[in-house]
Design a protein that fits this description.
By secondary structure, the chain is of the alpha/beta class. The protein folds into two domains: 127 residues, Four Helix Bundle (Hemerythrin (Met), subunit A), CATH 1.20.120.420; 219 residues, Rossmann fold (3-Layer(aba) Sandwich). The chain is 38% helix and 19% strand. Helix 1 runs antiparallel to helix 2, helix 2 runs parallel beside helix 4 and helix 3 runs antiparallel to helix 4. The protein is globular and about 65 Å long.
Length: 363
């Protein structure tokens, strides 16, 4: 997608510098900063500190981390050690382990002196595949939006609601939940997007920044406003992303997604989840019982970063000094609350049967 008229991916390999470049998302939407990752610590810290964030982007970053590992020391012992180091950075998003497993499985059978080049080629391939997967998700999701648009009075937009940021900066490009929105806008279908602020890190501001850069009509709302809008018929469709999807179609996404699904169910609003197939964890069935939920630093809850009136970017505390904060980063939405799953192979019901029908080769 474009930033100030220039096309960017969320990460890219700079051949002139022989290194990975990322958009440091800690400063968005207030400042657009590019960072180069030079060391294995850089890669691990980029994931832990959410300089890169979003399940698909974390996986692609980890693949390039394995490429650097193979360049430094392509031995089995070193690749396994780096696998452990990167896999420990964040526990919930399954794309991280998926990418690391794919890299290790491809590299270990090769001669040691062939691994570095193969690892970099594989990282490039994983990134390119992610772009194509998300493009296809957008094409399938577009059909849902167009079906709603057909029954709208002429000129009235399809009103979408999304939570967190499942946009192009959470993937390599296009995004998951936002890809259908971009496709609809580019096809001339009028849409308006309600963007949840998504506390504690206010990642909805990233979605608003994205949509605004693309010229898509949107409104930034508090996390608690979605149910009210649904009650008053102002939401036609909810689309979110997911960081891990179980075999039976439960979805684990940013904290607060479950509440949106409950409100959608109560108001007969379709609730769809957009996901690339690497986000499916075929080893897990019951998401509530089996998916580990990351508990992040309480400071993300007690403090807020933003632009001050003088234009500087700073952090301010919003709680009493003696008050502690709890910060579960994700929740699980059971499949019974999900209308359908939008994947690169099409749309299916949120069930084991639905996923297995679309992905028999993976299931």
């Amino acid at each position: 997608m474009k930033v100030n008229g220039t096309h960017y991916r969320s990460l890219w390999w700079d051949n002139s510098k022989d290194a990975l470049q990322i958009i440091d998302q800690r400063w968005l939407p207030h400042d657009f900063c590019i960072q180069q990752l030079d060391t294995l610590s850089d890669y691990a810290n980029a994931i832990v500190e959410m300089r890169v964030r979003g399940a698909p982007l974390i996986g692609a970053t980890a693949a390039y981390g394995m490429a650097l590992a193979a360049r430094l020391d392509a031995s089995d012992a070193h690749l396994n050690a780096v696998w452990d180091q990167l896999n420990a950075t964040r526990p919930t998003a399954i794309n991280l382990k998926w990418a690391l497993d794919r890299c290790r499985a491809a590299l270990l059978p090769l001669p040691v002196d062939a691994r570095a080049n193969a690892a970099l080629s594989l990282a490039h391939a994983i990134s390119d595949e992610d772009v194509e997967i998300n493009r296809r998700i957008g094409e399938h999701g577009l059909k849902l939006i167009m079906d709603i648009a057909k029954n709208k009075p002429e000129g009235e937009p399809v009103r979408l609601l999304t939570h967190c940021n499942a946009g192009w900066i959470a993937t390599v490009d296009w995004g998951t939940a936002t890809s259908p929105m971009y496709h609809a806008h580019d096809a001339g279908v009028p849409i308006h997007v309600w963007v949840d602020e998504t506390r504690p890190r206010n990642q909805g501001a990233l979605t608003a920044w994205e949509l605004g850069s693309h010229g898509i009509s949107h409104t930034y709302i508090t996390d608690n406003a979605g149910g009210h809008l649904m009650q008053h018929g102002q939401v036609d469709l909810v689309i979110t992303g997911t960081d891990r999807t179980t075999r039976q179609g439960d979805v684990c996404n940013k904290i607060g997604t479950y509440l949106k699904a409950l409100a959608a169910k109560d108001n007969d609003v379709p609730f769809y989840v957009a996901l690339p197939s690497p986000t499916i964890d075929w080893t897990v069935r019951d998401g509530v019982k089996e998916i580990p939920i990351e508990e992040r630093d309480a400071r993300e809850v007690t403090h807020v970063q933003g632009r001050m009136e003088d234009g500087t970017i700073d952090v301010t505390q919003v709680t009493p000094l003696e008050t502690s904060g709890g910060n579960p980063a994700f929740d699980v939405t059971p499949n019974r609350l999900v209308t359908g799953l939008i994947t690169e192979r099409g749309i299916c019901e949120a069930s084991e049967e639905g996923l297995c029908d679309l992905f028999p080769d993976l299931a």
